[in-house]
Amino acid sequence: MYTLMVVVFVLGYLAIALEHTIHIDKAASALMTGALCWTIYVIGMHDIVDPASIPAHLMQHDAHESVLHYVTHHQLLEHVSEIAGILFFLMGAMTIVELIDSHGGFDAITKLIKTTQKTQLLWIVGIFTFFLSSVLDNLTTAIVMVSLLRKLIADREERWFFAGIVIIAANAGGAWSPIGDVTTTMLWIGGQITTGAIIAKVLLPAILCLVAPLLFLSFRLKGSMARPVVEEVEMEHSGKVTDAEKRLLLILGIGGLLFVPVFKTLTHLPPFVGMLMSLSIIWITTELMHRKKTADDKSKLTVVSVIKKIDMASVLFFLGILLAVGSLQSAGQLRQLAEGLDRSIGTASPQGVYTIGTLIGLLSSIIDNVPLVAAAMGMYEIIPGGFFAQDGLFWEFLAYTAGTGGSVLIIGSAAGVAVMGIEKIDFMWYLRKMSFLALLGYFAGVGAYILEHMF
User: Fewer CB within 10 Å of terminal CB in the chain, N or C?
Assistant: First the structure.
């Protein structure tokens, strides 16, 4: 049963990776994987669980019942509580972003860029995406920026190229912010990193991850580009939302997201509490703002209507894959893997930590970075005073590599998958045109992080 759990986990991963080939949504595969792994664990628990590892207060007179109680009421519910915090956080953030968008709050951003020069636009798009991603999250930023590119660039392949830069910039920008990338958020919520430390230590590597490919391209891209001819079409929400209301929602939304790390620092409560508080404030504001409007005008502007647009498939994907990883953590496979890495590579030296972190980052271009980071969190405990301490070398380096390594392949990150779907970018085109640039930036950041800790 112990080995069967790993087999099911691997098959589940393959189903997720081959989502478009087998035509089964990755959320369904992830949920099945998580449910099966825990089921197998419970069925084979007498061969897997060491009775000596069961806390005394959970022991009962019947040995079978004591082990079953330990697995289902202690280990599983402990993982569910941790996962729930992440999911509540994501759902709150996604609702806030959708609410801003439904009010046209992002319109002001799309009107700022005037240039048609390729090099200038390259830097503007890259830098803007980088910092926007640190606040919104890389997935949402990628969607917003690709929508913007459609209004700026007429030629499809030129737009693909800039969309590739958006993927690199969005992932780099999310890596150094506790609310910019799901994996960084997971490490932040888990207590492996803190807000000030992750910004201080990962910001420079993340900047170089973007600047290196931008500098390389600055010597290759020349000339200007034609803008698409777009007819002025009245927006769906035009007439329903005033410019003042758009600005207010943008300020409240961005401010609400920025409030979350401050709230956690001041109260030490889980971040999802701060996110739900921000959502409630914006919710109350919109209810008061639109109270005098007709039911038809309010129909697409309230939180009740906006919340229906949340990508619940993504939320369920995270639930399934984190449950699956949690089962391997509880059963001991991840601990065994950690011991194997320690024997073959070792984490007693900085070189070993850098090697493992770099490999995890590159793996995240093939396998979703969420389960990779979840696995790493399960493999290694927070140990004060070493590489695995809170804000230790391993966790900070992992935040960078897992956040940016997914840019190497277009399917390696949520931002890349979203852009691929919107723009219909071909996998092999991205591999030929963008993977080298992503690798260039990735290793530039790795080098910067290592040099930071040498001097």
Answer: C
